[in-house]
Design brief:
Number of domains: 1
CATH topology: mRNA Triphosphatase Cet1, Chain A
Largest sheet: 8 strands, antiparallel, barrel
CATH class: Alpha Beta
Number of helices: 5
Distance between the termini: 13 Å
Helix content: 10-25%
Number of strands: 9
Length: 244
């Protein structure tokens, strides 16, 4: 991508600090109820935000460089997004500017609360353009970040229903995302379903505990599932997206 930040200059929230191994298991939407019950028997629900709507605005270049990284299975990649919670926006959960970096299965998410001000759009907030985005990254990080590339732009809105679980020691987190939809942030606010978008995500600082280590028995297989890549293909067509 056209954006590069030095990781050790950014301030993580405590719960997001450090890298985790991220495992993704796509599933048919019809099996979400069964999987929810299975997880409820093995992990406690997140005490702060057990479930709710999550919406993200992903940034990319006109050539869809970030998408190509995902579609090509690049080992190291980054995604820049604006994320908020609730429908409409929950002012207590806030709006967050996030840079997610992956190195194989290891991921690091650096995030900063975004001060949504001014007259909101139909989504309940203002999606920053390139100039404001560059300034926000500098202000929020408190460091000199390299400028956002001149062609980086809002590319895909993604929203879904998320249920969250977290172990008592916070070493393991699980989330189940269903009803995944996408919309073009530069077009009319029309939401389209994302085929095969439902996914279970497990994050841990080490090996999974025994009670979660046998997902294959449920017919789930770990993949490099990307809601963003699926959303881009839904919005812009698979072949045209791959061609850039």
């Amino acid at each position: 991508m056209a954006l590069t930040l030095r990781r050790n200059q950014l301030t993580d929230r405590p719960e997001d600090a450090g890298s985790r191994e991220e495992r993704k298991y796509p599933l048919p939407a019809a099996r979400a109820g069964l999987l929810t019950a299975w997880l409820d028997a093995r992990l406690p629900r997140d005490t702060q935000y057990s479930e709710g709507v999550v919406t993200s605005c992903y940034y990319d270049t006109p050539q869809l460089d970030s998408y190509q990284e995902s579609a090509d299975g690049e080992f190291a990649k980054q995604k820049l997004r604006l994320r908020w919670y609730g429908d409409p926006v929950d002012p207590y959960a806030g709006v967050w500017l996030e840079l997610k970096s992956r190195d194989g299965a290891r991921s690091v998410k650096q995030r900063f609360r975004y001060p949504s001000i001014g007259v909101p759009n139909q989504l309940g907030l203002i999606i920053p353009g390139r100039e404001e985005l560059t300034q926000r990254l500098r202000d929020l990080a408190g460091v000199a970040a390299q400028p956002v590339g001149p062609t980086l732009q809002p590319t895909a809105l993604i929203r879904y229903q998320r249920i969250r679980w977290q172990s008592a020691d916070r070493a393991v987190r699980a989330s189940l995302d269903t009803n995944v939809q996408t919309s073009n942030p530069r077009g009319a606010p029309i939401w389209l379903p994302v085929p095969d978008g439902a996914v279970l995500e497990l994050k841990s600082r080490g090996e999974l505990p025994p009670q979660l280590a046998h997902l294959a028995h449920l017919g789930l297989r770990r993949t490099a599932h990307s809601k963003y890549a699926l959303a881009v293909e839904t919005l812009y067509g698979g072949e045209s997206a791959r061609a850039g």
